[in-house]
């Protein structure tokens, strides 16, 4: 066996192993305790639910994904603008920053019903909720990235006659990308969860609505199936974020190799 | 002919303690002039003033006779660290001053590419700074400084972060490059040997915010390899050390 293959196996084996183990325990519990299906469906029941309902689930997933993507996009945009304004104007930072922090103590589950009352049962309240959830980590992480910039680097840029805009573009912005993507990875999974939670409250489409329906009919196998689907969607979005991050920060690779050679 | 003149510059951060007190200096065309003195003596403050990052309470900075006091973007300034941006390739780092002046990225890359060989960093264009050795980074930073303004450069302890061997290699390389590109340079160091080896003239900081008389190093350029071991070199060193201590009664 080649050394490379062996190292790959030693990396992958524990990850796959733990999943197989959980599945095996789950299966055995269902098989040998005679626990009713509506309390704990077996892995086989869940696969069956996927097989029976996948078309319906995918059509609901499309709605949820649309809300998530629009919410993410708008949230990032507002977060970015807020961070830029807070970085540029001390007055904005002093007034807006505490407001943002306080706003984050309000539980999203609690305002979702209000949003539905104000904005109706369509997509809008869901998107607004996602925006509210997403923009905070984005704004805070970008602001941190902007203000962490090395003072001497800014001085060097100034000595070259760089304008404020140029300093922002060539120093502050690339400097904050790492922070931005770390918070984006968290925001992405928050956004999916927020979309689902807001669909619980009201509406006719989306994975949240589907969840409410199958819960009311005690179809726990379908409940499990949709939970797994939501996790998979989050994982794919996080993975996509990482792909975009690598494309936007090509220097990371060189830094990674450099660190490894030092170690 | 004087390219850069500092006239009667006085500066204080708090309005009480004068970091710089009536400083005067002249940099002639193609000259390499050194400011030698202990840390905290106001050398970097003086550079910040010349670079236009700080404005003096009194006095003027003249570039080719034109008053540039408080204006940045006129002379190139290399800070103590190499200050290469870690997220830009070496060529994009070096091209930055040109891009800031409004040149297109592609054009700027072409222009800087021509200098890589001269500065001994050929082949590093597409690499990131983290992949370069300390000496290479310093060369890249010097090239960036040179490209910003081919007329006057301020170097703040450019070689102080390097190990001794790399440092002496950089000294030889630097004298060689300077001989060809004729960049008028004002540089800061606290290393007496470095000052004697590289400079045409040396100003000493007197420790009270002013400069002492200049010391002229008469050894012709390019300097011979044995110069650092010669009797003349040691004589310069004795003079300088005596002058530094003369200004300090408590040593």
Protein architecture, described:
The complex is a heterodimer of chains A (263) and B (251). Chain A has ten helices and no strands. Chain A is mainly alpha-helical. Chain A has one domain: MetI-like fold. Chain A is flat. The model of chain A has no long low-confidence stretch (mean pLDDT 89). The longest helix of chain B is centred in the C-terminal third of the chain and has 18 residues. Chain B is α/β, with parallel strands linked by helices and 251 residues long. In chain B, 41% of the residues are buried. Helix content of chain B is 33%, strand content 23%. In chain B, helix 7 packs across helix 8. Chain B has eight helices and ten strands. In chain B, the strands form two sheets. Chain B has a six-stranded mixed β-sheet with strand order 6-7-8-3-9-10, with helices on both faces. In chain B, strands 2-1-4-5 form a four-stranded antiparallel β-sheet, with helices on one face. At the A-B interface, helix 6, helix 7 and helix 10 of A face helix 3 of B.
Features:
heterodimer; A: 263 residues; mainly alpha; 0% strand; B: 251 residues; alpha/beta; six-stranded mixed sheet; 10 strands; 33% helix; globular
Number of strands of chain B: 10
Calculate Rg of chain B over CA atoms: 18 Å
Classify the secondary structure makeup of chain A into a structural class: mainly alpha
Which strand order does the major sheet of chain B show? 6-7-8-3-9-10
**Percentage of residues assigned to helices of chain B:** 25-40%
Averaging pLDDT over every residue of chain B, what do you get?
85
Overall pLDDT of chain A, averaged? 89
Let me know the number of strands of chain A. Answer: 0
What class do helices, strands and sheet pairing of chain B give?
alpha/beta
Strand content of chain A: under 5%
Q: Show the largest interface.
A: A-B, 22 and 29 residues
Radius of gyration of chain A: 23 Å
| Separation, N- and C-terminal Cα atoms of chain B | 39 Å
Text of the CATH class of chain A? Mainly Alpha
- Give the overall silhouette of chain B: globular
SSE order of chain B = EEEHEEEHHHHEHEHEEH
Unreliable stretches of chain B (pLDDT < 50, length at least 5) are none
The CATH superfamily name of chain A is MetI-like
Give the oligomeric state: heterodimer
């Amino acid at each position: 066996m080649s050394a490379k293959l062996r190292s790959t196996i030693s990396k992958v084996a524990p990850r796959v192993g733990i999943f197989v183990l959980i599945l095996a325990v789950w299966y055995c519990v269902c098989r040998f305790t005679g626990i009713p299906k509506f309390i704990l469906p077996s892995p086989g029941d869940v696969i069956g639910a996927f097989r029976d309902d996948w078309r319906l689930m995918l059509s609901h997933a499309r709605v949820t994904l649309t809300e998530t993507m629009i919410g993410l996009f708008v949230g990032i945009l507002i977060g970015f603008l807020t961070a830029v304004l807070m970085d540029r104007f001390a007055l904005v930072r002093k007034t807006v920053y505490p407001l943002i922090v306080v706003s984050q103590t309000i539980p999203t589950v609690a305002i979702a019903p209000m949003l539905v009352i104000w904005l109706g049962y369509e997509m809008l309240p869901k998107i607004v909720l996602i925006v509210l959830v997403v923009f905070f980590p984005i704004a805070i992480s970008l602001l941190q990235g902007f203000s962490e910039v090395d003072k001497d680097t800014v001085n060097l840029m100034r000595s070259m006659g760089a304008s404020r805009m140029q300093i922002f573009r060539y120093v502050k912005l690339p400097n904050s990308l790492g922070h931005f993507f770390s918070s984006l990875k968290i925001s992405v999974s928050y956004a999916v969860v927020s979309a689902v939670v807001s669909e619980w409250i009201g509406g006719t489409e989306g994975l949240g609505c589907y969840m409410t329906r199958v819960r009311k009919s005690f179809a726990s196998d379908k409940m499990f199936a949709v939970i797994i689907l939501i996790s998979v969607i989050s994982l794919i979005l996080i993975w996509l974020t990482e792909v975009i991050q690598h494309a936007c920060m090509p220097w990371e690779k060189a830094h990674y190799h450099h660190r490894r050679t030092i170690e | 002919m004087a390219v850069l003149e500092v006239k009667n510059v006085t500066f204080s951060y708090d309005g009480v303690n004068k970091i710089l007190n009536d400083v005067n200096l002249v940099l002639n065309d193609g000259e390499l002039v050194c400011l030698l003195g202990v840390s905290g003596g106001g050398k970097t403050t003086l550079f910040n003033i010349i670079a236009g990052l700080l404005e003096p309470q009194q006095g003027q900075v003249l570039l080719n006779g034109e008053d540039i006091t408080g204006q940045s973007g006129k002379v190139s300034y290399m800070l103590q660290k190499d200050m290469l941006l870690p997220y830009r390739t070496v060529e994009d780092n070096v091209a930055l001053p040109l891009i800031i002046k409004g040149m297109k990225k592609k054009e700027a890359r072409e222009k800087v590419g021509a200098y890589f060989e001269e500065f001994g960093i050929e082949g590093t264009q597409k690499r990131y700074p983290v992949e370069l050795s300390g000496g290479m980074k310093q060369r890249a930073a010097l090239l960036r400084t040179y490209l910003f303004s081919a007329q006057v450069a301020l170097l703040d302890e450019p070689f102080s972060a390097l190990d001794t061997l790399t440092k002496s290699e950089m000294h030889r390389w630097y004298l060689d490059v300077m001989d060809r590109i004729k960049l008028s340079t004002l540089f800061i160091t606290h290393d007496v040997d470095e000052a004697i080896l590289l400079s045409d003239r040396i100003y000493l900081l007197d420790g009270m915010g002013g400069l002492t008389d200049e010391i002229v190093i008469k050894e012709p350029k390019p300097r011979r390899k044995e110069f650092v071991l010669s009797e003349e070199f040691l004589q310069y060193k004795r003079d300088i050390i005596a002058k530094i201590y003369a200004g300090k009664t408590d040593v």
